[in-house]
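Batch manifest, entry 17 of 40.
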Amino acid sequence: MEVDYAAMGSRVRRLRLAQHMTQEQLAEACNISFSFLSHIERGTRKMSLETLAALSRTLHVPADELLFGPSGDAARALPRLLEGLSFRDAAQEERFRAAVLALVRGMDAF
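Output type: structure tokens
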């Protein structure tokens, strides 16, 4: 299977904008340069697994969604759902997000 870097970059950009983040903010959160993030969003550079994981974590989406696109309407609705909730900390939010996505995907464990 071939990775479509342009499509993946477009997804990163769309998710970043949906979360009202600048390229500078996302790059800093992922510990990469603004220039490199710009290349990723245009699909002109490849990223390491570490960068993919950092983008996934920061954008609150599974890495496979960045690679292949959303798995369905429920995955796209999750950021809106989370806006109305409050969490004790980032770890609690991440557990909730993982549980919801696991349910959406019909998985037994998360």
